[in-house]
Amino acid sequence: MLIGLISDTHIKSSEEVLPAQIRAAFRGVDLILHGGDIYTPSVLGQLERIAPVLAARGDDDTIVDMGGNGRVKGRHTLTVEGITIWLVHNKPHYWVIDPEEEAGAFKPPSEDPLVKLQFFRFDRQEEGPTFRPGVEARPDVVVFGHSHASQIEYYKDILLVNPGSATLPHYEPKLGTVALLTINSGEAEARIVQLE
């Protein structure tokens, strides 16, 4: 499966059209995941002409602006061909439960590679500590945005992908980046695409 990743489009008016280069970059995708800061729901409509769309609610998006139809949430969790994907706006921070502290206390993870990830904690209060072992599936991939800078990295065995901003990279109004996430035989691989 091929998934198009986009974030931080910051399209302020329903009359504005996404750059044609996005359609070209997303040719053949089965799904599009938007990492938030959409601004206007017309962006999602434009993307849905390419493939089905799910989006994270960005810090500049409101429930009213997005129409409340379920395609925009604080966090989406989906499983594709055995790979669990989280779609959020802000990059998660990684924390472990400290057995020496009171119940529920947490601290940043040790540099010790033997320490296992216990849960992700997000900056925004309403997101809360969201990953709890035994309660939900640990993510294999986390797609996020917010920084307007593309990034692919691993935390232990979790792939973290920020496609950057397609229309406002590093907060400059010009063509930016998107990403493509390929899922095949239980493996996930991402690559950044510079729009030209």
* Total of helices: 3
CATH topology: Purple Acid Phosphatase, chain A, domain 2
Strand order of the largest sheet: 4-3-2-1-13-14
Shape: globular
Order of helices and strands: EHEHEHEEEEEEEEEEE
Rounded to an integer in angstroms, the radius of gyration calculated over CA atoms is 17 Å
Q: What would the average pLDDT be, to the nearest integer? A: 80
- CATH superfamily, called what? Metallo-dependent phosphatases
Strand content: 25-35%
What's the N-to-C terminus distance?
24 Å
Descriptive notes:
With 196 residues, this protein is mostly beta strands. The protein has a single domain (2-194), classed as Metallo-dependent phosphatases (Purple Acid Phosphatase, chain A, domain 2). Helices cover 9% and strands 33% of the residues. It is built from 3 helices and 14 strands. The strands form 3 sheets. The protein has a 6-stranded mixed beta sheet with strand order 4-3-2-1-13-14, covered by helices on one side. A 5-stranded mixed beta sheet has the order 5-6-10-12-11, with no helix packed on it. The chain is globular. Residues 96-119 and 121-135 have low confidence and may be disordered.
